[in-house]
Amino acid sequence: MVKSYLRYALDDSFGTVTSRGCRSVAALSHDYIISGHDERVSVWNCRTGEARVHFDAKPDDLYNPSDVTAFVCSHSRNKWLYVGYHDGSIRRFEMPPALPTDAVSVIHEDFKVHGHKSAITCLAISPSQQLLASGSQDCCIIIWDTTGDLGLFRLEGHRNEVCDLRFVSHSQGSESHLKSRKLGVGSAVGRNSDDILGFLISVSKDCIVRIWDLTSQLCIQTVVHSTAELYGLAINQNETRMYIAGAENRIRCYKLDMSGGEKDTSSTYDIPVYAKQLSTLNRQEAHGRCRKLCIVYPGDSMDSPGKPDTGSQMEIEHKGLLLSVSSNFVVFYRLFDSKEASKRQKRRLKRVAEKQRARCNKLREAVAATGRSVDTKFDALEDEIAYLEKLLSGSNPLETSDIDPFDPQNDVSDQAATDEINYMFAVNVLERVASFVAIPNGFVVGHSTNCVSVWRMNVNKLVQAKAKDEGNSDMVSQVERIHILNMVGHPGPILGLCISPNDMMCCSFSVDCTKIWNSRTLHCIRTLDTKSVTCAYFIAGNKHLMLGTAKGTLEVVYLDACEVTELYKVAPEVNKRSRGLDVVAMTEHPDHSSFAAAFRDRSVKLFRYVLKKKGTVDSLCLKDIGEISLTDDPTGICYSSDGRLLAVALEDSTIQTYYADTLKPFLSLYGHKLPVTSIDISSDGALLASSSLDKTTKIWGLDFGNIRRSLLGHSAAVVKCRWINGTHYLVTTGLDALIKMWDCDTYQLICQLRGHSSAVRSLAISADAHYFISASDDSTIRFWKRTDEQLFLSEERERDLDIQLEHEATRDDINHPIPVDRDALVNKASRKTIESVKATEDLMRVVDEAEEYRSALEDYQRELREYELLMADKGPIKKYGTPDISAPTEPAAPLELFNRTPTEHVMLALSTISHNVIHEVLIALPFIYAEKILAYIVQGLEAYQAHISRNVLNLHTIEMCAKACMLLLQMYFRQFYAQSHQRPLLAKLEKLLPVALQHELVSCS
């Protein structure tokens, strides 16, 4: 009989609010924020600290859950959430009309596109909500059609990661015209003046700002003034000013004129300049790199933040605030309107003129001191100063230290950055910033320490502040933190996990704190302010927790009161071999009356629980009952289930076993080549498992100490190994982010669990093996639950092989020769995925089925004509009699066609292909199939034309068929043009396709 197993499946993940790798955060209000963590995006109630909505990707057996890296919310009547992932995919979720109050709601995506090869770094939505731009670490930008759910084109030009994107208004084109041009039906769609957005501005780590014309799909200007990586980009409400910042200690300001009225004066050609550089604004070096720039205006709302106002006659219509976000600071700059900027400009020029006159007078006095006189008259003061300095050359230099040429106040240009922008103050947000978003009257900060803070600011008062008040404490007090969401998880990597004996509670600990979780609700029920905890376990009774720290202390924590009732510390004078007093590991004796602790000073100490009176209450205390000296630093320790043996793993790659009662050595296990990271003894005491940095897991027999088997399954170091109670099933975790289950009776891999995106360093299994938990470096705890689904090894190996083959089919580094025109591949927005590969195979299968039936029908028609001709000739029949030949029978339609004609069968298959994969499907087709599909499309259009003439309703839409036809002609234009027998087919398409599309357009309108 074939052996079967029960499958463990990922039930949930918890312990994180925001991930360090997620660059986005959003807010519905000051009380509800949206953050990305792990592979999901969640809506949080900041007052209660609970999640209300989870936006999760649909489960996929072929791909690991990919982490969220960026997301953006559309602000329209139907709000949408677009989420970018680490694998380069983008998913769209529909926001619920109202947030649930009783339970957490889980929402799955309604569509998914995949065009990037690397992680998504930034997303931007056009104000009309019709276009979505995505930037990635693969240096590319892709423009997506949000209404048609497909990629339009790809923009290539950056040499490094794209960091920020912004849409800017177009003066001539429109989004609807752009998309209709791309689809080849530009004459059928009119322009709309409300969605005039045809420019995109991008900044990258390659120190370059690029301005793209989306209509021509070309970069029309490259700004190369910066000398360091660029991260932040902001555009004012009138779209007349652009601010960029990054690793250099300055904010660069540009004047935007998207009409192309500005010309490049340094060139002899009439080249338009869309972004003209103004003078730069220096930043304080202590604030660090600027990671993001945001502009806030008084009166902004959640529904339409930062809506462009391009109809104003003034160059800068509104006053506002420019927020520069660095690692720990949010720096406030005040933006002036055109009227105030003009006044500041006049005052600046007046001050500069006064300084120049004073400088000129000093130069005249110096010239007069040399006995010379100047009678020349000058048109400008600058000319006179230059003449006097030239006249005095060769003599001692004039002391002009009061004139700083780098001071922006001494700028003599007509437009200076300080006329329109001025530094106010900086706010310390206390924790390192990972993501940031400005909201009306506030901002939200996602920290790299797994917490989110919400800040409120009085924008009106800050904008109307007097110059003398800028930077004082009264202005700084206008910005205050109102919420901090930091109780959900650990601020740093999780160092270990443990489960209570009754399986009702879980414990996780890090350097800063220890948290107790309810294993049913996965909610945090206790947070202990502990420091440097290295190991922990629940004491029998589930009311106490034992902690070992890096300071060499053992702490007994009473969970009901969350207080330490007993503290044991090794005396310094006792430590003779000490290189540190860290408590490395602890294990409780099976009789629950004592435990052993391994210390960094190369010793294992044994302790017994005792009850002592402290006042009127019995308190649990510790008593030292024994010690074992070791030859090297310990790394792990465990008791056998019967309490007979105590095993200790050492850094010298060995495992020492001792008799637990006499503490005498029993067996020394040699075999690992690198230090052992974890050990565990099976529940029957027969086997010992050990994991090591040498990427192996070894199974030892405790009867003779021999190696039963060395398991090679992980591609990186194996960190933890744990036996499932009552079985010989072993669970291992490694730095390769995989969890593997082994059957150590047959030494076969049962299955591997994919879920973590970083190294899995902690593992704990419940006593009844109903669930286990694992934690990785990203502070995420994942809950794996045993299901009723049976698992067979043969099926699991076939599944692994299918996954490997399908992943191999989507590789982009294998260049297969394809006859597609290269121009059709350059700017394609999509990429090959498992979905597109399967759709290609299905389409080829449909064409083969249709061709088989069509050829059978043609043979039948030919045989029928031959039979009719034979029966019509009466002469041979009269002479020789009627031949013994029966009439041919019409072939029955295959079941796969469902009584459809071959043309209908192919047209229906084309109409069911998704918009986001149609390009990749047709690219992967062999040319012979492209010819057949085009022939079927012509037959389908002829049938469609006949239905139109008879006013018969067509049951199949031709939208996707027409799109497939245009794409095939674009891809295989040279082949079709070179083959003369295909030209009549193209002529028919030219005649039938416009009529069909016009009829569809009229029907839709």
UniProtKB/TrEMBL annotation:
WD repeat start-end pairs: 113-145, 669-710, 711-743, 753-794
Signal peptide per UniProt: none
Origin organism lineage: Eukaryota, Sar, Alveolata, Apicomplexa, Aconoidasida
PROSITE patterns registered for this protein in UniProt: WD_REPEATS_2, WD_REPEATS_REGION
Full protein name: WD domain, G-beta repeat containing protein
The UniProt record lists the keyword Repeat: yes
Coiled-coil regions listed in the entry: 339-366, 843-870
Gene Ontology molecular function: snoRNA binding
Keyword Coiled coil: yes
Organism, as annotated: Babesia bovis
A Gene Ontology biological process term: maturation of SSU-rRNA
